[in-house]
Amino acid sequence: MTTIYRARRILTMNPARPEATHVAVRDGRILGAGPLQELKGWGTHTLDDRFADKVLMPGLVEGHSHTTEGTYWRYTYVGFFDRTDPEGRVWTGANSIEAAVDRLKAAGAALKDPAQPITGWGLDPIYYGKHRCTRQDLDRVSGTRPVGVQHASGHILNVNTRALELAGLLRKGIDHPGIPLGEDGLPTGELKGPEAMMPAAPHVGFDRDLLACDELGLRYFAKLCVRKGVTTAADMASQLPPDAVDMMLRVTGEPGFPARIVSLRRFLSIAPDELIARALELRAASTNQLRLGIVKIVVDGSIQGFSARLKWPGYYNGAPNGLWYVAPEQLRAALKGALEHGVQVHAHTNGDEATDLLLDCVEEALARHPSRDHRFTIQHGQLANAEQFRRMKTLGMCANLFPNHHFYWGDQHYSTTVGPERAERMNACATALANGVPLAIHSDAPVTPLGPLFTAWCAVNRLTASGRTLGEAEKIGVAQALRTITLGAAYTLKLDGEIGSIECGKRADFAVLEDDPMEIGPQKLKDVRIWGTVQDGRVFESAPAPREAAPAP
Amino acid sequence: MNPPSARIPVTVIGGYLGAGKTTLVNHLLRNAGARRLAILVNDFGDLPIDADLIEAQSEDLISIAGGCVCCSFGSDLMGALMKLAARSPAPDHVLLETSGVALPGSVARSVALIAGCSIDGVVVLADAETVAARAADRYMGDTITRQLAEADLAILNKTDLVPDAQLLALRKWIASTAPQARLIEAVRGEVPAEVMFGFGYSRAAIEGTGRLASGKLKPVEDASTRYESASFAVPQAVDAERLARALASPDSGLVRAKGVLRDIDGSMKALQVVGARFEVTAFAGRADPGIACIGLRGRMNRAAIERAAGLANTAKIV
Predict the structure, then answer these.
(1) Which of B61, B139, B144 to mutate to test the interface with A (most CBs of A within 10 A)?
(2) Boundary of a domain, candidates A166, A181, A204
(3) Torsion angles phi and psi, residue B54, rounded to 5
(4) Confidence grade of residue A553 (pLDDT, cut at 50, 70, 90)
(5) Residues with Cβ within 8 Å of residue A421, at least 6 apart in sequence
(6) Is A111 inside a domain boundary?
(7) SS3 of A469, please?
(8) Considering the entire predicted model, what is its pTM?
(9) ipTM of the complex
(10) CB-based contact (8 Å) between A96 and chain B?
(11) How far is B16 from chain A (nearest CA, A)?
(12) Of the candidates B102, B146, B106, B42, which has an alpha carbon nearest to the alpha carbon of residue A196?
């Protein structure tokens, strides 16, 4: 059964044949892209005109997200920016604490059980001026139910008085850097960092392991993928216990599941040799729709949380250097084991010192176990400089940078965390490409919203939320950006032989667009309307948003 | 919230890879006496418990001779601690072995947030052979010094493996890196259980129902004669907070003290000192007021302790 789709324009990412008008699909794979006359040569076919006024791109590849993006949507979104939920409703941004409080209050009014918590996410009080959100603010939501709202960064939780009480934190004498105290000596309700959040989180509806995705979350995540033109997404990463793997295999294997998930095993709680053994077991369990067997290692923390490891001169505001999340001995052992057994490693570094350590360790491991195509990938690598990109190239590494940071935290990076000069070179996409480092870019959803075309817009324009252009020299072109969110990301996942371009033999994965990203203009790249996707030859149209609108702020 | 007396004491054990954290923990398990210890480790990867001590092992729990257990916490330290605190019977003492790159002081501040736990002390180990080189390491140096700077007790371990001159220099270096900490020295992690857990009386005796009687004290037995112990009856009212502060200061030469006192406002207080850390809490039980101390042999400053306790001429030393 062959179907030939006609499209307004097909952007193939195949340099030998960059554009086409038709694409022929058989058994979920691409027979070819080109003029109808050529494709007819494949024999009996159906000509399908449904995309005649659409633009097709290779299915977009999100190289670093977390399926928990889907998990959060069962809670109330109170972020500053508009955000689209899995059903397609646009939640308008909450532009003040009052707006956030009102929305949470409305969510509480819908609850029957009087003890049930009210849970929100996405709060961004940095846009509300100097006022920090307090327990008194959230007491206006409810004085009797526990109320908790996670910040957009995921690193801070604001709770009300009732939640503090339930957590045993409504007391004097607390001495913790993550728990500011009010004039009355009691916590203000702001809980910063995972440890400070932990005693209260279960009382306000956040499960213990916020990064563990469940079945409903996975289904929501897949719906979001269709809306954003994504056909393959990396889930980066969890400990992948057997029951989670079974669930993911079952759900992703359903005939109507619209995305290919690449789920990485995080290096946590086990010894390096066990990690590699587990990765090999997971790899053997992979299916077409669920790819397993890559390892993720977290080397340091985050820049906005001041837990990233920076080289001299450190943080612009004088904060002490950040934290190591892995000892060099463990990192080396894991990298050597991975090279020895052909396991791919993706490593999170944010600070440039963490990147240095990773590069040193990879260099040492490669000297022991030379490997020609390991594609070890630096994830985030936000502060990497030109010298480090040159080393990445020499060592055969890839980079997956995080340009969304410019929009969401760029102003803070400029004023507070790393200062103007380094803020301008953060996520140095142009330097990476100039040095020949295979490049991907990502959203780290739910840290920032899933949406590779938005991420591409960030890499092309490098605008902050306040409108500052952060690093003119590191901008990349639209064509380059589109390549990074397709073939570029596919390469970092070792899937470039299967996906990432529209050409003979590859999987029939398309992003179906209403607008042409090459024509709409660089400033409008994020506004490209997305009709849906084709994944493995199956057509998925974004369901129209339900009639009732999302709650107004 | 549970009353303070019901909180389980947690000792946070820090120090870089190879400093001897696991060796110390195993030594303490072998010398736990009747104490039910719970050990929390990051992972079971590097055999946290000596094989001959293990009675049974499941995926996340090792049962150890004498009613002790060992659990791994992975990514969820706080959750694992809350679970431990809820165990029945509750452990007498938790030893939390942090990862080699963690900052134990930060870990302790977080543990203190859990209603069922209280911090007994932050103990940081340093490997006498390698700590100087580690502290000069380009990547790990500041982590090593930050770990020590947050210690209540610093244990310089493997002192038998370095020449005297180097040991002398190390003592000076640790004193300047961690001026607040009480420095103790050890070979193969052999630190007496009393130094880590206090004297042999049960928690109930000091915190609730029993009586603290100076005559019951067992002297600290340490073959290397590194420590000495003493107890003082303190019949008159004292400023408990001030006394605690004095006992926790380096001048006292104490590594540990515990006691019950009548405060100047007439209320009864329990006092605990672990190296540089002290805590004064309300005391509801019955006890003869007094303090029991463990100090470094030859360094315990009895005169200073007596002065601080207002015992100028009436000290009763056991």
Answers:
(1) B139
(2) A204
(3) -85, 130
(4) very low
(5) none
(6) yes
(7) strand
(8) 0.91
(9) 0.87
(10) no
(11) 9
(12) B106
